[in-house]
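Try this one yourself first.
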């Protein structure tokens, strides 16, 4: 028998895990499943801007060959200008890497950095690819707490207490997935100082940096890092609703002179995968210039804003469920009071809801949250779909309430 690699044991991605597989089986049986499990804008009518699609179509013949392994120069210039315009110094085209989405770049950057047993501080809850990617790279994820009672901001003292001689890096996800928290400058400065004091690489996953509500402001971690290496990751998947194009970037700033060997490793891995999707790279310059259509969607009256309001109001109207209102991204991360329910865990909630009401969510423990009492809701579907789904969630939770 052929068996999977040992390094895959413990690597999980519950957004498309066993519950998702059960949902596909129910669909094969003819049931209609309401999917509130994945942040994929296109199926819900959030289209990629026409200008980007047009650019890709008219330039498609230029995408027939490989590009430079770091990416098209014109696209890297566009990324460089974006961060210069936001006040981040020291952004050079030779320290920008374009990838097949941020997911590929996370793996590439960790593979080039980690040796067996190296530790990476990852938030809890997190986007689970980070934890699994560290595992795949023979490292160890050490989770630091994000505090629900403090708007889901990182607990800096907890983070600092978990640094050991094996720690190599800190991961930030800002705005956060799954909580929607947007971190204030004071938090970012403290974590940057900790990274510098301990000579740690700071990874800042900022894929939702324009999806902000109620006047929330996003601040780049790179703005506060000088004496260590900062790697900012972002792309077109969310802000430009282009998830399927797989266009992301990693920007290396800060003390790059300390990372010559590391960046040689990144270059080697980038070269081995030859290049990122060239057709998608051709859209980056257009995407980052001109009006940003996401701004209309997240403003009062915009579709994302209105759906966040609706989803938040409906979920918090359910007895026994509370939720910190998200300031960014397009997720809710509610908490269910299990002491008032016959349900024993988030997984029991999610699986029961799927089988009985045909609504698909993701359990909170799938985001490396230790307590089995949270779940994630995507509020991308149209308002009528959200109303129907929330009604089913409420019905199910009340049916499972203790008498």
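Now uncover the answer:
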């Amino acid at each position: 028998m052929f068996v999977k690699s040992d390094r895959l044991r413990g690597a999980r991605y519950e957004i498309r895990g066993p519950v998702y597989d059960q949902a596909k089986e129910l669909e094969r049986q003819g049931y209609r499943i309401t999917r509130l499990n994945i942040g994929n804008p296109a199926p819900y009518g959030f289209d990629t801007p026409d200008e980007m699609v047009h650019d890709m179509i008219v330039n498609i013949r230029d995408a027939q060959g490989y590009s430079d392994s770091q990416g098209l120069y014109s696209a890297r210039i566009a990324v460089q200008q974006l961060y210069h315009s936001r006040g981040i110094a020291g952004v050079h085209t030779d320290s920008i890497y374009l990838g097949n989405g941020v997911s590929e770049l996370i793996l590439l950057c960790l593979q080039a950095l980690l040796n067996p047993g190296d530790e990476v501080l990852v938030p809890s809850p997190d986007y689970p690819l980070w934890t699994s990617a560290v595992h795949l790279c023979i490292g160890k994820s050490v989770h630091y707490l994000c505090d629900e009672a403090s708007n889901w901001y990182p607990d800096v003292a907890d983070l600092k207490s978990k640094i050991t001689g094996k720690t190599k890096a800190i991961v930030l996800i800002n705005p956060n997935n799954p909580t929607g928290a947007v971190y204030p400058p004071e938090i970012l400065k403290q974590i940057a100082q900790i990274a510098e004091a301990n000579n740690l690489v700071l990874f800042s996953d900022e894929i939702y940096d324009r999806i902000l509500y109620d006047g929330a402001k996003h601040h780049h971690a790179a703005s506060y890092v000088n004496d260590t290496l900062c790697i900012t990751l972002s792309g077109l998947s969310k802000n430009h609703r282009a998830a399927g194009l797989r266009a992301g970037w990693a920007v290396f700033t800060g003390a790059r002179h300390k990372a010559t060997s590391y960046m040689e490793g990144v270059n080697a891995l980038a070269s081995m995968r030859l290049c990122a999707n060239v057709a998608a790279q051709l859209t980056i310059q257009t995407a980052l210039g001109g009006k940003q259509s996401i701004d209309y969607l997240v403003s009062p009256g915009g579709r994302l804003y209105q759906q966040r309001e609706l989803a938040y109001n409906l979920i918090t109207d359910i007895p026994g469920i509370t939720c910190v209102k998200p300031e960014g991204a397009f997720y809710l991360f509610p908490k269910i009071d299990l002491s008032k329910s016959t349900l024993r865990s988030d997984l029991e909630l999610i699986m029961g809801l799927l089988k009985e009401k045909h609504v698909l969510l993701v359990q909170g423990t799938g985001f490396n949250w230790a307590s089995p009492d949270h779940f994630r809701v995507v509020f991308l579907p149209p308002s009528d779909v959200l109303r129907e789904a929330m009604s089913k969630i409420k019905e199910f939770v009340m049916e499972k309430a203790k008498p």
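Discussion: The two ends are 51 Å apart (CA to CA). Residues 6-47+295-399 form a domain with the Aspartate Aminotransferase, domain 1 fold (CATH 3.90.1150.10).
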